[in-house]
Design brief:
It is built from 5 helices and 13 strands. Helices cover 19% and strands 35% of the residues. It is an alpha+beta fold. A hairpin with a 4-residue loop joins strand 5 and strand 6. Helix 3 runs antiparallel to helix 4.
């Protein structure tokens, strides 16, 4: 993922609201969201090059999502795939807080990342460019290719839009969340972050929904988890197209603890 908005136990009736864009090179093979044959409890897309995933949930209520930390000058060509940090958590049974503490010691082996993991009881964050694991209290969070809540324009704009939606209604419209993710407006040059990319790429990457000839927003995902345990998972798949080419929708009740 490259843009994630999370409302964690922020407003009833939702325990969790996720709106996220996955940005990736178009040539990298991947599969759209589905329940995995080898792990039927896991719902998410799959990276067909290195394995793992960028975002997923389970029937037990586990959730994880990851973004890359943009720092091209420190890229390690032989680093392990960051997608396994997500899939390993989803496939596990241990407490989320223990998981982030365990992987923190080896986090330097990976290229830069920021990771959410959680379940129905807690939510946690870890970046290998930050100061260690964080226990997240109920609230609204935004994450792009830097640290949690770094005030990049697209992060701030999306958080404000999500906050307004949650304040306006007790029932979220999925399309209103997708509208936040579909924002293709450009950011003025003077507000662009400086991450080691060329100015041309900083301009392209500053939009919430990214479009370029070789890289862009491959999918948008909305996840709603009600306090009664109902999960709604909706994914729009774009790949290299400006309009969605596929819609995946899943609804299910979480398994009893």
């Amino acid at each position: 993922m490259c843009l994630i908005f999370v409302a964690y136990k922020y407003k009833p009736p939702y325990d969790l609201v996720i709106a996220a864009n996955r940005d990736e090179f178009y040539e990298r093979p991947s599969a759209a969201a589905e329940f995995w044959k080898e792990a039927p409890s896991i719902l998410g897309g799959k990276d067909l090059m290195a394995g793992g995933t960028w975002l997923g949930v389970t029937k037990k209520g586990r959730f994880a999502a990851i973004t890359n930390y943009r720092d091209p000058g420190s890229h390690k060509h032989q680093a392990p795939s960051r997608g396994h940090l997500v899939s390993n958590f989803l496939a596990g049974t241990g407490e989320p807080v223990e998981y982030v503490r365990k992987i923190a010691s080896g986090a330097h082996e990976y290229n830069g990342f920021s990771l959410f993991v959680g379940d129905r009881s807690s939510m946690h964050y870890l970046s290998n460019r930050g100061s260690g694991p964080k226990d997240l209290s109920p609230g609204l969070y935004g994450l792009s290719n830097h640290l949690l809540d770094t005030p990049w324009p697209k992060v701030e704009r999306g958080k404000k839009a999500l906050e307004a939606l949650l304040a306006d209604s007790d029932h979220l419209r999925e399309e209103a969340l997708f509208d936040i993710l579909a924002d293709r407006s450009r950011t003025p040059d003077e507000l662009l972050p400086s991450t080691g990319m060329s100015l041309e790429w900083e301009r392209i990457l500053a939009s919430p929904f990214i479009v370029s000839p070789v890289y862009g927003t491959r999918s948008s995902t909305v996840i709603l988890v009600n306090r009664d345990g109902k999960v709604t998972f909706v994914e729009k798949v774009f790949n290299s197209n400006p309009d969605p080419q596929e819609l995946r929708r899943f609804e299910f009740m979480l398994d009893e603890p």
